[in-house]
Amino acid sequence: MKILKEIEQDKGIFALKYKGISIWPVLRLKSFYQILEQQKGATNITRKLNKSSVLVILKCFFYGFSELFKLSRYDYLVFSCSERRKHVDGLYPERVVEGFLSQTNSLLIENPFPLGKHYRKDQIPTKSIMSESILFIGIFILGFFGYKKSALENEKVFLDIQKKYDFKINYNRFLLIYEGQYRLIKLLLKCFKKPKAVFFVYSASSMGYIRAFKEFNVPVIEIQHGVINKEHNAYNVYNDFGNELFPDYLLTYGYRELEVFNNPENYFINPKNVTPVGYYLLDKYLSNQSDDQTEYIQNYKKKYKTIVAYTHQEVYEKEILDFLIESANLAPNVLFLLLPRFDLKEVRENMPENLIIEKNLNVYDCLRFVDIHSTIFSTCAIESLSFGVPNIMYNYQNFSKSYYADILGDVNHTIFVDSPYEFVHAISAHNFESKAYIASASDNFFKRDFISNMNHFIKEELNS
């Protein structure tokens, strides 16, 4: 974050433009992830265009293809990705916006990455959906013919940034995608009736789309999908690059996020346009707190007195596995459930019996019965509180404290450890408060009744 701040508070960055638009916002996160990979050893999460990616796009191309010709029918367009679906009651709802989709005349445009697929339509409650793969083909074609490197003004500014911070990215590729997004949406909006509004579950990778929608006076709204705090690179912008590439509104889980945008050094969005609405899937789970435990879960509880759920982050896979293996060896009477979003890249042989890579239950299923939650900086650290489950955070490279020390500083529900020994000691020795106390602490993080709050926002703010 310090590097982004240095770059963005240097007035020279404003000279970097593409077709008259300050283009650093398009390149900032791609640059940051590359720097993080080189300096911290983190896995770069920027999607690479390779053979496997192309095959996914081609495989998913016809998923909901007919919806492309029905765009005029819909009041709202919603952009999300298939990875955000969670298994609930036999189906896979989109965890952030499913409640909104079910209540409105909306089309979900779903990115198959990073999961690499879409769920079958009989597996999801979403009625109107099409793959963003359909748009990817158009983006590539229009970007290939529309992107002009000569339109990049003061390229040397970016070359100097790369040299100073010792990294390199294919910035022409990202600007080509931006140009393709922009041209495609302009074309579609000329051919079809424009929507009343467009929603993004994550907006930073869609700035070409956003610019085009704004030129047609379509309100652009982002809905929070994960943690937002003063350390999150996507939501802390350290200079005023204009609002052409950023959302008009941000809908958050709760009121704590307002503190991030009330900072006068943060130019991501006007804090007056930040509205708490809650979190759909959390509402769904908390309103259906069944005591029935499956035989699968009961087998865990019979064998182990203490169960820890660890929410994984693929950027630090090796470090997390090392940490959990050592912890499991130190505490054979504790069950550690590792909850990855995707298949692990590294398969370890001869893992301890009490360390299980849990693939049958999602994190919310687990939070109903585990005793402790752990992670480095997953959003589940605040979600766990809603279930009355305390956190023991693995403070790898001080990331946990930098993300959460300010907002999860109550030792009654959250503590930070730096080693497997400290972790295991805290599991057995630290006295957390009651489940009721911990659950009450979550009220500050999540506003209840997502669907009602969304309806109110649509009526009052969008007047539709």
Distance between the termini: 38 Å
Task: Count the E strands.
Answer: 16
CATH secondary-structure class of the largest domain = Alpha Beta
CATH evolutionary superfamily of the largest domain: Glycogen Phosphorylase B
Helices, by number, come to 18
Average pLDDT, rounded to a whole number, is 93
Overall shape:
globular
CATH topology of the largest domain: Rossmann fold
Helix content: 25-40%
Low-confidence stretches at least 5 residues in length (pLDDT < 50)? Answer: none
The SS-based structural class is alpha/beta
Provide the spatial order of strands within the biggest beta sheet: 5-4-3-7-8-9-10
CATH architecture of the largest domain: 3-Layer(aba) Sandwich
Largest sheet: 7 strands, parallel
Structural write-up:
The protein has 2 domains: 1-279 and 448-464, Rossmann fold (3-Layer(aba) Sandwich), CATH 3.40.50; 295-444, Glycogen Phosphorylase B (Rossmann fold). The model has no long low-confidence stretch (mean pLDDT 93). It has helices at 2-8, 24-40, 51-60, 98-103, 133-146, 155-165, 171-191, 207-215, 258-261, 280-286, 295-303, 317-330, 363-367, 380-386, 399-404, 420-429, 435-441, 450-460; strands spanning 17-18, 21-22, 76-81, 106-111, 129-131, 152-153, 197-200, 220-223, 249-252, 274-276, 306-311, 334-339, 355-357, 372-374, 391-394, 414-417. A 7-stranded parallel beta sheet has the order 5-4-3-7-8-9-10. Strand 1 and strand 2 form a beta hairpin. The chain is globular, with a radius of gyration of 22 Å. It has 464 residues and is of the alpha/beta class. Helices cover 38% and strands 13% of the residues.
